Amino acid sequence: MHRTDLIAIGELATRTGVAVSAIRFYEAKGLVAALRTGGGQRRFLRADIRRVSFILIAQQLGLSLEEIAGELARLPAGRTPNGADWTRISTGLRARIDAQIAALTQTRELLGDCIGCGCLSLRRCGLYNREDKAAQCGAGPRYLLGDRAREIAEVD
How far apart are alpha carbons 141 and 153 in whole angstroms? Predict the structure, then answer.
């Protein structure tokens, strides 16, 4: 390894747009690893520019730090992730994003309708009835949890 393969924490912060304190936090969480100089200064591999960038993207996608750590643990240490690495990661992320889109789409479609929460307090609530049939299927927003109004009506 050459000296030019290593960068200071300040340069990593500048290149990624992340505060030095955030890089220290990522290091404490095991997301990046610093080498130390004889004087105790942190030095990072240039490949860590991409690792930190991946952390930022993954956070914007809603991944937890634990999930991000799991993805980063599968990457080879000391090497910049390549196309095959990214294809594997992005395939898994795509499935997660598709599931989030499906859940958000369902929520958007139900916003104007009753969600089966049993509130019975709104005059326009489609659930407004004395028997509260949705509640017979369990607690919570029954329609958002997957129950259908037709199925609930058939429970009787």
Answer: 16
CA dihedral 54, 58, 61, 66 (to 10 degrees): 180
Residue 118 phi, psi (nearest 5): 85, 15
d(C-alpha 72, C-alpha 115), whole Å: 39
pLDDT tens-place string over residues 38-71: 898 999 998 899 889 989 988 988 889 998 888 8
Three-state SS string over the chain comes to CCHHHEEEHHHHHHHHCCCHHHHHHHHHCCCCCCEECCCCCEEEECCHHHHHHHHHHHHHCCCCHHHHHHHHHCCCCCCCCCHHHHHHHHHHHHHHHHHHHHHHHHHHHHCCCCCCCCCCCCCCCCCCCCCCHHHHHCCCCCCCCCCCHHHHHHHC
